[in-house]
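Action item from last week, closing it out:
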Amino acid sequence: MLQTTRRNENFTPLRRVAWPYSQASIPGAPKQHAKQSAGASGGAMPANALIDTGAILALLDRTDRWHDSCVDAFHQLRLPLLTSEAVLTELFHLVGDTRSEMEAAWRFVRSGAVVLGTIEDAELQHVHGLMSRYWDRPMDFADGTLVYLAKREFLSAILTVDHADFATYRIAGKRQFRVLPANHP
């Protein structure tokens, strides 16, 4: 679960949902018959970047201070973007209390813009190791899953509003993330 007191400025409940896209309308969205990537669920193409909870919330909420920056960065990335079950858990916990907000989140998730990276039970030890290594941040479980997926899938770009943490985290203990959006609101 997120430490919402530390990240309140990044995660606000939705007030105006904005996800009018379907899979067919998103440039670069995978087709149903596309090849499956290693570790990704469904019949999705390999991802080229990761996406975190705050960025998804910002894409969905036109009033979020990160909305415009995230939309611009999102349109520069080749889809689909890789995420984790932990990110989706945070998303649906934070998305808002109305049915329209929940449905907007589902439209985004099912649009083909994201693909879910699965983490098997045997891989959890790696996430645990990351969380232990970055205990002083502290690294939450969702961030740990994304850092692990970055290593496993050879990705370095991430769409996130959590710049401070992802600028600190290292992929395989060495490589820096390319944190997007580059411009802060």
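Closing note: The chain has one domain: 37-180.
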